[in-house]
Amino acid sequence: MEEKAAVKKVVIFGATGSIGTQTVDVVKQLGGFEVVGISFGSNIEIASRIMRDLGVEYYFSKKDIGFGKRCQSVDELLEKTSPDIVVCAIPGFEGVKTTFSALRYAKRIALATKEALVCAGPFVKDLARENNVELIPVDSEHSAIFQLYEPHIEKILITASGGAVRDVPLERISELKPSDILKHPTWSMGGRITVDSATMVNKLFEVIEAHELFNLEYGRIDVKINRLSFIHGIVFLKDGVIKIHAGKPDMRIPIAYALTYPERKYHSYVADVEEFDLTLFDVERERYPLFFYGLELTKDNDDLAWRIALNAADEVAVNAFLNREIMFTDIEKVVRMTIEYILKQNISVQSIEDVYEIDNLARSYALKYVEKEVKK
Ligand SMILES: NC(=O)C1=CN([C@@H]2O[C@H](COP(=O)(O)OP(=O)(O)OC[C@H]3O[C@@H](n4cnc5c(N)ncnc54)[C@H](OP(=O)(O)O)[C@@H]3O)[C@@H](O)[C@H]2O)C=CC1
Ligand SMILES: CC(=O)[C@@H](O)[C@H](O)COP(=O)(O)O
Ligand SMILES: [Mn+2]
Question: Which family does it belong to (predicted)?
Answer without folding.
Answer: Belongs to the DXR family.
